[in-house]
Design brief:
two-stranded antiparallel ribbon; Jelly Rolls; 4% helix; mainly beta; single chain; 8-stranded antiparallel beta sheet; 132 residues
């Protein structure tokens, strides 16, 4: 009979990783809970103004904000505010970025489905185009 899998701590042995790749602007802490070809699950904490680069997810991405406030922006649109409790569905292939507000940290639980394709950094001008 199948049973639930308990994942002890993070897949990195309970260690947070600061800016694990060159795909973030600012200080970002990522705690991977699960990684496979099909999905990546992580808690990600952004310091004020920190953000991802533009990116897409082959199968889409769920984002649940668990602390603080920040922004999400789809390519061609303006950034929209997100806050604790919000759940976002970034549809497959939608180019977007997300990150913390100017005066707040933001922590979110993310579930990325399939391959993530990273693009260029979000410019300060793109980040400054925020709306409430």
């Amino acid at each position: 009979m199948p049973e639930s899998v308990i994942i002890k701590g993070s897949s990195l042995g309970g260690q947070s990783t600061v800016k694990p790749t060159s795909t973030f602007t600012g200080d970002v802490y990522v705690d991977f809970l699960h990684t496979s070809k099909e999905a990546a699950v992580a808690n990600v904490t952004f310091t004020p103004c920190a953000r991802t680069h533009w990116h897409t997810h082959e199968g889409g991405q769920f984002i649940k904000v668990v602390a603080g406030s920040g922004w999400i922006c789809d390519k061609g649109d303006v950034p929209r505010r997100i806050k604790t409790g919000d759940v976002i569905w970034a549809q497959p292939g939608v180019t977007h970025w997300h990150g913390a507000d100017n005066g707040s940290i933001m922590t979110h639980l993310v579930v990325g489905l399939g391959e993530t394709k990273w693009s260029e950094a979000v410019t300060d001008e793109d980040y400054a185009a925020k709306r409430d």
